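User: Can you recover a sequence for this backbone? Please restate the input before giving your answer.

Assistant: Of course. Working from this structure:
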């Protein structure tokens, strides 16, 4: 079986579904990947400890407000993923117990990009919660998930490389890019290009644009699950998507 890569993607708000530029980039990226047997996605929008897993066959989570009614009627009904849930639980150490959340579906950090990347919804999908914001612990969790890639599972960390929503002044897709967003993005691009995991982990002290780029850090830290799942975390990945959306950095990464 082909080893799957691991990804870190910017997921966007629901209007991403109507943005032909970025949605086209995500669709083309998915088309270039081997077809996954299953998908495990870690979204910024589910912070819960211990590690929790979503359930198949339950309603999506519409965890947003102020958007058009059509977004609250969307569906993404994927096949049963209980076998993947059992496999994930078997990979985790006793210090990282896994809770099966029987009533929680996918939130928009998962289903919005996946509707673009895999619109037929014919691949089993599980969402895993972020149990911590500590990069070192997330790297270890990602390392535990690494064997899934040899089993055809696509591991995705879903966030946004900058996410200073309180500091945005324009709400247009082509809004001007704030200096704090550009500075953080270019710092991260350089560190990713060098495979400098230590630099990326020490973003609070090292990254320009803080804390404006991430007044809370949950959109950045899924990156460390992705890097932990990499065969060699400190080997540079491929920065597949860059640029900005509403002034926020949509830079996205693929690691081998």
């Amino acid at each position: 079986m082909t080893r799957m890569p691991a990804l870190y993607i910017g997921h966007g708000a629901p209007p991403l579904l109507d943005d032909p530029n970025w949605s086209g980039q995500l669709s083309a990226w998915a088309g270039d990947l081997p077809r996954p047997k299953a998908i495990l996605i870690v979204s910024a929008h589910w912070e819960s400890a211990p590690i929790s897993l979503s359930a198949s066959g339950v309603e999506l989570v519409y965890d947003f407000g102020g958007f058009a009614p059509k977004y609250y009627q969307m569906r993404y009904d994927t096949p049963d993923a209980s076998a993947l849930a059992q496999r994930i639980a078997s990979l985790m150490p006793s210090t990282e117990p896994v809770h099966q959340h029987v009533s929680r579906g996918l939130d928009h950090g998962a289903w919005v990009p996946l509707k673009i990347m895999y619109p037929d919804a014919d691949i089993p999908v599980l969402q895993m919660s972020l149990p911590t914001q500590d990069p070192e612990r997330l790297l270890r969790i990602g390392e535990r998930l690494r064997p899934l890639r040899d089993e055809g599972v696509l591991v995705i960390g879903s966030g946004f490389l900058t996410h200073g929503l309180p500091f945005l002044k324009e709400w247009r897709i082509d809004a001007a890019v704030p200096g704090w967003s550009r500075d953080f993005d270019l710092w991260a691009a350089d560190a990713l290009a060098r495979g400098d995991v230590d630099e990326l982990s020490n973003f609070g002290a090292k990254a320009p644009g803080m804390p404006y780029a991430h007044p809370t850090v949950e959109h950045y830290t899924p990156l460390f699950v992705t890097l932990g799942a990499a065969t060699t975390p400190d080997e540079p990945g491929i920065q597949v998507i860059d640029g900005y959306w509403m002034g926020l950095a949509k830079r996205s990464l693929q690691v081998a």
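That completes the design. The longest helix spans residues 179-194.
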